[in-house]
Amino acid sequence: MPKVTIATVAERAGVSRQTVSNVLNTPEVVREETRARVIEAIEALGYRANQAARQMRTGRSRLIAVRIEPDRDGINGSVLDRFLHGLTDAAAPAGYRVMLYTATDDTEEIATFESLLTSYDLDAFVLTSTHHGDARTSWLAERGVPFVTFGRPWGAPDTHSWVDVDNAAGTAMATRHLLGTGHRRIGFLGWPAGSGVGDARRDGWASTLAAAGLPGTGLDVAVEDGIDSGAAAVADLLPSLDALVCASDSLALGALRAARESGHPCAVIGFDDTAVARVVGLSSVSQPLTEAAACCIDLLAGVLDRSAPPRQLLFEPSLVLRHSTPL
Asked: Where is the HTH lacI-type domain (predicted)?
């Protein structure tokens, strides 16, 4: 089916393209009879303003788009669900509506950007799960599409507005707590190098051990996220440890299972403070997701108004102690 454009609508209505643009942007300057004819053409053709038409407008749609994250194992996949709820709650009082979409990788997400911008009158995007070599931000920036990110631009300049949580501070906090309760052989269970977030969480653990004059060499292991992978990864390491800091609650739950099965006592702290952590009594680092989401909406106002330079906000996490780290 041929793409419907302003020119298509103008031809059907028997008016100029400028008149169609006026009906879309400043309808009060168009005679009622002409306006009705253009609206009839728009409805008959199923026309939706594309990105070019959006840029012609003086107003805004108040519509922002954000990706729904993959479910993963149902545990850590729920973390960004909480962010999404916070974003939706913060958007409504500010007069914004949130559109959701799915994508499995950068390439598919960029294709989705093109489709959404052609089909809908979007004001902006909120991007999540930023990473090294993130192609999404450069694609949007090159086309002048407003956006903010929940997550910093790992390895790239701070050229756009973002909100993030200090991942290194979270694992440093967990490690200091374990040191303060007498633990000295503190290991780290994390993700393969290069993820940005995972590297920062490892750095917090490593730098805190180094500052205490304690060795970290040989006490960390990296695996793909998951309960089973976490349990298998630390099974052989547990006899060398008396405590473990983990990059996620899924990995921490796997470590707890391995410790229980081996009979080797080990204090365990996870990351993200998921609902499962609360149910099973797992100590975990908690992210202020509601506050971070609200700040994303606040930053969008500046981005859309072009009233301020890009801003970056870094939140401190907190440590929630439960039964997995007995005093």
From this structure: 4-58
